[in-house]
Design a protein that fits this description.
This protein is mostly helical and 82 residues long. 72% of the residues lie in helices and 0% in strands. The protein is elongated and about 60 Å long.
């Protein structure tokens, strides 16, 4: 058994997280203030907010991924002890 445990996050997983966060954010910007259009894209300030929202949502996804990995390791170690 290898005593070191590494958390490996592939580039594909990160890209998928960014795509999911971008789609969710684009939808939120689309329905914002009941405008139901993409006129927000014409304003540079809205793009800054879009990037911030995408980064926050991606960070939340990474936290969920990391927490899941930690708990799966803890539970697998607990199962081995019993």
């Amino acid at each position: 058994m290898n005593p070191t445990h590494h958390f490996y996050l592939s580039d594909k997983a990160v890209v998928n997280m960014l795509i999911i966060a971008s789609v969710i954010t684009a939808f939120l910007f689309f329905i914002d203030e009941r405008a139901f259009n993409f006129n927000w894209m014409l304003n540079f300030g809205n793009w800054i907010l879009f990037v911030i929202y995408v980064l926050v949502l991606t960070f939340i996804q990474l936290l969920i991924w990391f927490t899941q990995r930690i708990f799966s390791k803890v539970f697998s170690i607990a199962k081995k002890d019993h």
